[in-house]
């Protein structure tokens, strides 16, 4: 099997760029068709650039469309609502009928003829909506897409500090994405409403240059993955941490 089509499934606008912008840019460069799925419009976030909370969803949707176009991918936005969370409050997931969510992901993967699904890790870097996405992808893929590769992003790379690493998921592969950093930075530039948050999280740095993944399906049984996506990443310079 050659890698022809990938579906990247995330919860909020900017997840695709922050967590996998370099990986997406690499796949597009290699003529792999990439389709991004975003479950919400991010309307529950902190709205520093809009006067009213109800305006934020439209702003972030425009930013998402800009970023995905810069990365060279196509896009589906689902109809789930990102719940508003007070600053410093415990987040909770968007409301969804789980079976419907699973079916939507499976249907999109089939429509795109996806060889690969790239999504949040099981830890969801601590966000319940990310964890929900991972669970829905895992259930749908294992029951209805058994031959589709599933990789999770933000897998743990020892000795590299990153607050978004999924601590329970050691990376199978880590890639220095600096050859695609300009494209990722351009996509991040679309997210004007999030620039202050990006600056806080990166402590003023330009952004993470290591993106790491773990294969979730099929199980590797403790062996390093040796599939088309793994070979693509190794050719691009990825290593096993």
Walk across the major sheet and give the strand order. Answer: 3-2-1-4-5-9-8
What is the CA–CA distance across the termini? 26 Å
Structural class: alpha/beta
Question: Low-confidence stretches at least 5 residues in length (pLDDT < 50)?
Answer: none
CATH superfamily: LmbE-like
Query: Radius of gyration, Cα only, in angstroms?
Result: 17 Å
Report the average pLDDT across residues: 92
The biggest sheet amounts to: 7 strands, mixed
At CATH's second level, what is the architecture?
3-Layer(aba) Sandwich
Order of helices and strands: EHEHEHEHEEEEHHEH
Overall structural domain count: 1
Helicity, as a percent range: 25-40%
The CATH topology annotation reads as: Rossmann fold
Please tally the helical runs, counting DSSP H or I stretches of 4 or more residues. Answer: 7
Would you kindly provide a written description of the structure presented here, covering whatever features stand out?
Helix content is 36%, strand content 20%. By secondary structure, the chain is an alpha/beta fold. It has a single domain (5-235), classed as Rossmann fold. The protein has a seven-stranded mixed sheet with strand order 3-2-1-4-5-9-8, with helices on both faces. Helix 4 (128-144) links the parallel strand 4 (116-119) and strand 5. Helix 3 packs across helix 4 (128-144).
Short description:
By secondary structure, the chain is α/β, with parallel strands linked by helices. The protein has a single domain (5-235), classed as Rossmann fold. The protein has helices at residues 15-29, 56-71, 98-111, 128-144, 181-189, 195-202, 228-235, and strands at 5-10, 33-40, 74-80, 116-119, 149-153, 155-156, 166-170, 173-176, 210-217.
């Amino acid at each position: 099997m050659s890698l022809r089509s990938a579906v990247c499934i995330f919860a909020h606008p900017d997840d695709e760029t922050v967590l996998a912008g370099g990986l997406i840019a690499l796949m597009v460069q290699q003529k792999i068709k990439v389709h991004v799925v975003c479950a919400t419009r991010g309307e529950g976030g902190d709205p520093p650039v809009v006067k009213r909370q109800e305006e934020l969803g439209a702003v972030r949707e425009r930013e998402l469309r800009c970023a995905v176009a810069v990365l060279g991918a196509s896009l589906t936005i689902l109809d789930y609502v990102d719940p508003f969370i007070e600053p410093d409050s415990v987040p909770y997931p968007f409301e969804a009928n789980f079976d419907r969510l699973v079916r939507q992901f499976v249907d999109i993967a089939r429509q795109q003829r996806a060889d690969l699904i790239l999504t949040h890790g099981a830890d969801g870097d601590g966000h319940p909506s990310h964890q929900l996405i991972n669970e829905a992808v895992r259930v749908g893929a294992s029951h209805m897409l058994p031959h589709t590769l599933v990789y999770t992003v933000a897998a743990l790379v020892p000795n590299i500090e990153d607050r978004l690493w999924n601590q329970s998921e050691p990376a199978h592969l880590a890639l220095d994405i600096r050859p695609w950093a300009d494209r990722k930075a351009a996509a991040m530039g679309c997210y004007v409403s999030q620039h202050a948050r990006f600056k806080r999280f990166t402590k003023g740095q330009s952004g993470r240059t290591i993106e790491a993944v773990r294969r979730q399906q099929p199980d590797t049984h403790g062996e390093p993955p040796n599939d088309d996506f793994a070979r693509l990443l190794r050719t691009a310079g990825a290593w096993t941490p």
